[in-house]
Specification:
Length: 316
């Protein structure tokens, strides 16, 4: 018997990148009753669909991993959609879960909620000390409001809602569409295509000078599961690896793993985004024993291998 045995669990976004890794983790941990609402049947922006989903699933535990998300370009192209869809999904879901009597809810937040110039490493207590980076502020603020709602509901209604802040995720099954992808899948696709075409150059966004921290998706899933099992406080919790790398060094690393021998050209007319990202992860370690396990180079190899296998399978 494990914590998850015989629990009724609903994972919104459970068919997506993070959600599918989370469902795999829960199944390995002994869960057997996981409900994944699909968007064709349940539009989580509509209150009536959320009510019907809760009636169908009858969850004791609810993990909200669904999100409308993307890279800098996607955030700049559709800031209104990124704000509205993410805010209204979470606001309705938290309220209806409260009324339904869900025992515990976990909200997956975003690193984009932090101020643009938060002190390094980002500590959870600094989350209100400034405005988010402009290119993804609507998305970050929409998700941040769900933390406010969770804390307010805990105070007024006694609902057990916890909020985690994963850093930039990467791994197999990520989104590799160049119009909406984040930096790692975008670079992997560009370098693979350039290598296969024998191209001399690859163009990357920005200057390459910003830094980022990355967390392998399976490690993020483990952190979320541990928080559901053992964390019951209102304070937000960072989930990260605490390893920082510049975008330029990241591009060189990915190019080397893929075998691209050409040159990377930096398009400085494109925005860099937040100057630095590195988390303080002491709270997650202290509160529920989470530490990232996947070495960055190993995670990148797994991600590249998955992408290349998927490309090969698609051509058959």
């Amino acid at each position: 018997m494990t914590f998850w045995t015989n629990k009724r669990i609903t994972v919104t976004g459970g068919a997506g990148f993070l959600g599918s890794a989370l469902c795999d983790n829960l199944l390995r941990s002994g869960a057997s009753n996981i409900f994944v609402p699909r968007s064709k049947r349940y539009d989580l922006r509509e209150k009536a669909d959320i009510v019907r989903m809760l009636q169908d699933a009858r969850p004791e535990y609810l993990i909200h991993a669904a999100a409308i998300a993307g890279g800098i370009g996607a955030n700049m192209a559709e800031p209104g959609r990124f704000f509205y869809d993410n805010a209204v999904m979470g606001i309705h879901l938290i309220e209806e879960a409260r009324k339904f009597g869900v025992e515990k809810t976990l909200i997956v937040g975003t690193i984009c909620a932090y101020p643009k110039f938060a002190p390094i490493p980002f500590k959870e207590d600094d989350i209100w000390n400034g405005y988010p980076e402009e290119t993804n502020a609507p998305y970050g603020l929409a998700k941040k409001m769900l933390m406010v709602q969770a804390q307010a509901y805990r105070q007024q209604y006694g609902t057990n809602i916890v909020y985690v802040l994963p850093v930039n995720l990467y791994g197999p099954r990520d989104n590799f569409d160049l119009k909406s992808s984040h930096v790692i899948p975008a670079l992997i696709r560009k370098y693979v295509e350039a290598r296969n075409a024998g191209a001399a150059t690859v163009t990357a966004w920005g200057t390459g000078s910003p830094t980022r921290e990355f967390l392998y998706v399976d490690d993020a899933a483990e952190g979320i599961a541990l928080a559901m099992e053992g964390y019951n406080k209102p304070d937000p919790v960072n989930l990260g690896s605490s390893e920082e790398i510049s975008i330029k060094d990241l591009s060189n690393l990915i190019a080397g793993l893929i075998g691209f021998k050409g040159e990377t050209v930096w398009d400085s007319t494109k925005p860099d985004g937040q100057p630095r990202r590195k988390l303080d992860i002491a709270r997650a370690r202290k509160e529920f024993g989470f530490t990232a396990k996947t070495p960055f180079r190993d995670g990148l190899r797994k991600t590249i291998d998955w992408y290349e296998r998927s490309r090969a399978a698609a051509r058959k």
